[in-house]
Amino acid sequence: MVSVNLGVLHYVLDHIYGAFLHRTKLSTPFFSRGWGGSKLDLLERMVKQLFPEAAAQNWPPNLVQPIWKTVWETKNARLREGVFRTPCDEQLINALPPESHNARVAFLAPKFVRPQKMACVVHLAGTGDHTFERRLWLGGPLLKQNIATMVLESPFYGHRRPGLQRGAKLLCVSDLLLLGRATIEEARSLLHWLEVEAGFGKMGICGLSMGGVHAAMVGSLHPTPIATLPFLAPHSAVGAFCEGILKYATAWEALREDAAQKAGMTLEEVRERLRSVLSLTDVTRFQFPKILGLSYLWLLQMMAIFLDTLSWSFKEHGQAQK
């Protein structure tokens, strides 16, 4: 009898698929326009401000005022969508594409429960998650637990995607850092709005994959304790782009040519440079989230509910496909 390690099998198949898809030019690569020039220098400085040793690490969130419209409502629940100006400072706004200046958010909540009696979880997008639907799908069953769901559309995704960008394939390395920094700012501001304006007593932040990385950073940087749940998240983008499947989807030659305009670099030096830049996304460089007392107990409860919901969603999706 031959036993098969499914983890190894999936890893091998993923890499074969990734190599075939991207080396045959069937898909646009990441970073096809290079490093991002002066934007990358700016973003490297601004991301470093998030680390514990930086004086600006505990800056308070900016309060946003979303303009809401009701999408639908039932007897027990209501879905609203809101638009607000990104709370990023002027330097970041100028670096963002115009399409990303206004943020979009969906808010699914029970209708007849006071905010003080329920909780709300902000769901952040994983790589390639351009719409609200997947995360709202997870939020549906949470309504039974009196947990509202807020879904943020990331910069560079969905309606906020630049016109020249194809899918999730960011044009420059600087765009990845910019996406992360803006997402962190916007998520912290939404959590602040939930507490100050909406009156929620319990709040959480969660995300899948890239969204989990951003969720961990938000949990670390938020001034008050919130439940923080990164799900299937790497510790940084280094693994994905330098070691994982996305290394086949990275425009290494474009990065080398862009770097060569300043100083000649070999392909191996380009890989090391990208590894160095993406190390700024390493969540282990951040402080542990401020989870104390009841927040910790609620985190455990939220994890159990989230996993049950994920299991339910996969089951429902499987039945729908039959």
TrEMBL record:
Gene3D superfamilies: alpha/beta hydrolase (3.40.50.1820). InterPro entries: AB_hydrolase_fold, ABHD18. It comes from the Eukaryota. Signal peptide: none annotated. Pfam families: ABHD18. This is Protein ABHD18. The lineage of its organism: Eukaryota, Viridiplantae, Streptophyta, Embryophyta, Tracheophyta.
